[in-house]
Design goal:
A hairpin with a 2-residue loop joins strand 3 and strand 4. The protein has a single domain, classed as Jelly Rolls, CATH 2.60.120.10. The protein is built from no helices and 12 strands. The strands form 3 sheets. Strands 3, 4, 5, 7, 8, 9 and 11 form a 7-stranded antiparallel beta sheet that branches.
């Protein structure tokens, strides 16, 4: 079962057709205080858009504070990361706002964000921390 989160009306909406819409996506940083963030990892907050139990797909907004890091992990399925503001880097280089990264199943990396960032993360399957 997919679970859609509550929606601050100016940023997110869930229509009667069960369609979730993120409004003004590339200006998300300007509206970040309207999002109900919850702690995720040290220096990182999450807002789940949807999350299927077990090995199912999920999507979330992640907000990295400056200097935040995610330990090495492996992707169980495809992972799509759209950087909405700021920048982040892994062992393969850095990406900034407007960049889309797609990681293949079985690939792995660690992440750091020196300046902080907000990303839209879409996971086919959960990641595994090693």
């Amino acid at each position: 079962m997919l679970i859609f989160t509550s929606d601050p009306p100016s940023i997110m909406s869930l229509s009667v057709e069960n369609r979730f819409v993120l409004h003004d996506l590339f200006h998300m940083a300007e509206h970040q205080d309207q999002i109900p963030w919850t702690p995720f990892r040290e220096g990182i907050e999450v807002h789940w858009i949807y999350k299927e139990a077990g090995e199912g797909p999920s999507a979330a907004l992640l907000r990295f504070q400056p200097g935040a890091k995610v330990a090495w992990h492996e992707h169980g399925g495809f992972e799509h990361i759209l950087v909405l503001s700021g920048s982040q880097a892994d062992e393969h280089g850095g990406v900034s706002a407007g960049s889309l990264m797609v990681h293949r199943p079985g690939s792995g990396h660690s992440i750091t964000s020196e300046e902080g960032c907000i990303v839209l993360a879409i996971y086919e399957k959960p990641v595994r921390f090693l």
